[in-house]
Design brief:
Jelly Rolls, 2 domains, UGlyAH_Cupin_dom, alpha+beta, RmlC-like cupins superfamily protein, RmlC_Cupin_sf, 11 strands, 5-stranded antiparallel beta sheet, 180 residues, RmlC-like_jellyroll
């Protein structure tokens, strides 16, 4: 019995010396203090390095809905992920400033098709609505929905499926990189 304990102790000492070879800095003997239960952590994709913490007023274990809401607010929108800029209900002054009434017009009925943008395109939706599902997303997954009055800028190289549920009309122009 004593030999078994001694052998185990020797193995642990060897592991400790091996760790010092791998890590030139001293290894702390006590584990790091855990974060409070009411703190959400965002970590980097490289490892588990904390980027920032969000402290909630009440503990997560008591209010699970609060935890879900906090996680949802940290999730980026589809528009942000795919670099699509949208101004909802663009004011008439902004439309006049851009000269939207002189842009080309495109109309369609109920249809769907894949589309890829070779250049930046700025669109003002006159009537109808469009659902834009980026490539790689499932049809019912996350998508962008634009309706009449929205001013949208699609970036170059975006690939998506376009779904039109009824009559649709838009004014559009193509933009060079850096034009604003």
């Amino acid at each position: 019995m004593a030999a078994c304990t001694k052998d185990r102790k020797n193995r642990l000492e060897r592991v400790e010396t091996d760790k010092t070879l791998l890590y030139p800095h001293p290894i702390p003997k006590t584990p790091p203090k855990p974060f409070p239960r009411n703190t959400l952590m965002a970590t980097s994709s490289v490892g588990s390095t904390p980027l920032r913490s969000l402290h909630l007023a009440s503990p997560l274990r008591k209010t699970p809905q609060l935890a879900v809401r906090a996680c949802v607010t940290l999730r980026r929108s589809v528009e942000e992920i795919h670099n699509v800029h949208v101004e909802r209900n663009a004011p008439k002054e902004r439309l006049a400033e851009l000269g939207v009434e002189h842009w080309s017009t495109w109309k369609t009925g109920k249809c769907q098709f894949p589309w890829d943008w070779q250049v930046d395109q700025q669109v003002y939706i006159v009537s109808g609505e469009v659902r834009v599902v980026p490539q790689g997303a499932k049809s019912g997954d996350r998508y962008m929905r634009f309706v009449a009055g929205d001013l949208v800028r699609y970036p170059k190289w975006l690939e998506a499926d376009m779904f039109f549920n009824g009559p649709y009309e838009e004014r559009y122009r193509f933009r060079a990189y850096g034009d604003d």
